[in-house]
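[job 4417] fold queue: 2 targets
>>> target A
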Amino acid sequence: MNQLIEKRKKEIKCSPGREVSGNAYYVSDSGCDAFDGKTPDTPIKTLEKLLDLPIKEGDSVLFCRGSLFRGEVSVVSGVFYGAYGEGEKPKFYGWSENLANASLWEEVHRGIWKYKKEIFDVGTLVFNDGEKVSRKLIPSYINGRFVCRDDESKAFEIKEGMTENLDIYWHYEKTFVEGVSKGESFPVPEVRNTKGELYLRCDEGNPGKIFSSIEAVVRQIAFNVTNKNNVTVDNLCLKYYCFGVQGAGNIKGLSVTNCEIGWIGGNIQHYDGTDPNFPEGRRGSVTRYGNGVEIYGGCDGYKVENCHIYQSYDAGITHQVNAPRKFEMKNISYKNNIIEKCVYGIEYFLDILPGGEDSFMENVEIEGNIIKDTGFGWGQQRHNKETPAAIKSWSYKNPAKKFVIKNNIFDTSAYRLLHLVAEKDEYCPTLSGNTYIQNSGGMLGQYGGNEGKEPDIIIFDKDAKENICKIFSDENAEVLTK
């Protein structure tokens, strides 16, 4: 299995570029923004300069292999975003700089260091390309002060709260929105598009001296395709963002192919609301989020293929919506991807709210993927640890037809291997020819309609093969016990 995964990773890493049509614009980190960007010999240098170019539908934007860019790309409908030249895929990192610089930090308490610049909310810090990661502390915000999440009577204090080496805390308290928590309304910090203060506990000394690389996973989107149609993202490496590729609304023709997407999410979505998981039943919700590739809303022609996606706080790939009106999610293809150490390998759900009764999923294919070590990545710092699944539907209505899951490899989950539940049995996907690998005594998962009651969780034991054939109806399954 490991040999197969490494072979597939190498194939994705070395994916060739493809021929493009229309006008092409070239970008290189060794270019110059005074250039016109119209040839490989005259590339522009920065992502910001793309805003000044007359890019239109049918054009291509090509990034030089071996280059590193920082920040977000301004996406245009109908444009192909890809790579040119030789070498590694062009890299896109979320924050504007590597934080492994001693001059960027000041010690504010013994062992606690403050980043000298303001920064977007940080989901985690990744040290030395994944050698270590931070634990993010997020106190609740109730009635004008940050309080400890496990005891809202206590104010959160940096010195006392940051108890472990490499703990981080992001502080913002400048602008507010009205939030509702357990029926009580009060102002909470507005974290969208805001920069705050970052604190890091580093017991060994100045972190800029201790580590050669410190990358901040910031609340930014590498490619935001909201209200953009017919966009292709190909052969790029997207790391240290809240989302690699993300869009909301109704999106047509999104294609993400041959990409590497890693170290995603964990950022604060909002402080308002009531957290259903932790602290159980208490006020002062703090919701975290972040997916590798996501469409939130409707879609038609959504493809994620031949990508390597890893270490996502939530899902590697997802289509999802809580539908207050009609949403159509159709012609979706997730094929031949490697998804590792995400909390959910592939997540989908369609929750029907009043007004959204006519929403549906149709013609969904999940085929040929390897989804490995689900729930064993850094995202399991989350408080609700019992949710991981290689494919995760939650237990919403999920009306669907022509939904097929075939010839995938599901290799080990910290909790369910599969969670495939809908209101009715006929809404559930059809399974065929998949390989199931799980620890003996672990969870196979759930399958079926929940109109009467929630389907039982099936254990991965000596009867796993029989249960997969009988309950999951995957008669051609291969079953391996660790």
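>>> target B
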Amino acid sequence: MSIIIKDLHAKIGDAEILKGVNLEIPKGEVHAIMGVNGSGKSTLSKVIAGHEDYEVTSGSIEMDGQDILEMDVDERSREGVFLAFQYPMEIPGVSNANFIRAALNARLPEGEELDAVAYYKNLYSKMDGLEMDRKFTARAVNEGFSGGEKKRNEILQMAMLEPKYCILDETDSGLDIDALKIVSRGVNSLRTEDRGFLIITHYQRLLNYIKPDVVHVMYDGQIIKSGGPELALELEEQGYDHLIPATA
């Protein structure tokens, strides 16, 4: 079971961003995408999640054999896609605890609701693992949070929702080394044979803590090279220029 992307083309407005992406992310594996700014990495994450600003002009995305391009954002989420944003949004007036509980309740059969005691026990356990003060349950989602607190909150949501496929768009952006270690530990705790990960990053340092199975290099809307974890080290040492096609 996997997400399979074939010859994916997508644009925003008149600008074509994705120009034939081919990628497979099996459950049980962590795939990392690296590339220069403007190569299409974040666009790919948003297109998979169903962001309405992007138009898919050709190609396909299948998740566990099911075409998801006709699904809206909420349907894709319910089917198991989770996107952790580079810049998490603030939601004033909605507490963290109520936000996550509403998302979980929405996934239950009609008429069923979460057991409150079990919910908070699970929530507190996940927060403890991310070294989050339990007072954050009563605070509005991401409002007044530091960059590191916002990223931990994204991982908390992911841990509670237990998606099939986790997409992390530059989760390491703006994190100091201590916050990076905590967030990485939270991600690693969710690695199972039943869950796939796509991690988008500029830097090798994140991959020191979240070990990828496969590393892909993206350039000008396409994946131009794939390899093992050693590819990230190669990029750290040599940069991207030696991989960019001569005709580019």
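[job 4417] complete. Note on B: Residues 14 and 168 are 27 Å apart (CA to CA).
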